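FAQ
Q: What does a multi-component entry look like?
A: The components come first, one per line:
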Amino acid sequence: MDDLVRENIKKLKPYSSARSEYRGEAEVFLDANENSYGSPVVLTIPDEKGPGAQLHRYPDPLQWQLKKELSKVKGVPPQNIFVGNGSDEVIDIAFRIFCEPGKDNVIVCPPTYGMYRVCADINDVEAKEILLTDDFQLDVEGILAAIDKNTKLIFICSPNNPTGNNMNRLDIEVLLNNFHGIILIDEAYINFSNQKPFLQELTEYENLVVMHTLSKAWGLAALRLGLGFASEKIIDLFNKVKPPYNINQSSQQLGLHALLSLKEVNINIKKTVEQRDWVSTELRRFKFIKKIFPSDSNFILVEVDDADKIYQYLLLQRIIVRNRTKEPLCKNCIRITIGTTEENKKLIKALENYA
Ligand SMILES: Cc1ncc(COP(=O)(O)O)c(C=O)c1O
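Then the predicted structure of the entire assembly, as tokens:
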């Protein structure tokens, strides 16, 4: 593991914040130059009584309460969890820990989530693109052949955005067993999938990072809570590099509150999956729909006769879908997020009037 980490990160003396230096019970906090007179607003959590959140105090830099609750839900110990300001922060920090700008490279497998490449570009790291196969699976041989001594990260998105399908588990295991860099499996959509997450494997593979998010199944995109699960060694590196208070107090508290509402979340997942089937069935009626790709996510990729035309038509009906026609292997494809029952009905009705 040590030889994968950038020299400057190995040597880094992380910022020591007032709240990370102090542990224990105190009465008077005069250590962090906060405003002791309070804040003009109070954060109150629905259904919770009490004084509300202390917004004039810096939040817990390591979000232990949130991690303890996440630990119960995910079955991963708190010290193996990193919380990022969205998954995008997890991705960016991985680059900053492991990739030497202008020298190292990573492997991404398009068509896939665009931020892997954008983060590579921002960090001046080459992104080698090994396209998925025609059935949207990993080209394992191509990936293995592309690895060189400077390859530090491989990004695998499963279920994949925008194709919607799971990657074959055995292919991922082959890569885990044959690559000595870090494999990041982005499971943002795992709650909509039949596949089980790669979390149990964390004890087996020291070079595995699994990413989840509270933005999708948990319905908390606005809070920006992305999760990284990995060995303690990797989590310590993430904590060393992250901004001291990367998760604000309201996100920590509201996230914690949501984690206690598992039942409601599961109901919404069930509705989404049912609606995914309904929308897929309805779409089959239309001649201009050429192919509906099977989905394990909360969206469907659909091949149509003319993606630009349908996209523009729906826009006029005030319905926005994602035109993916410019993505490799996605010519004339649009990606449709599964909406509420009403929204989905509107979409199908609009398509009925499309000539
Ligand atoms: C595969 C994938 N990973 C991560 C994200 C972003 O997640 P977050 O909201 O946690 O940054 C998305 C958002 O669409 C996504 O499709």
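Q: Is there any commentary attached?
A: Sometimes. For this entry: The two ends are 58 Å apart (CA to CA).
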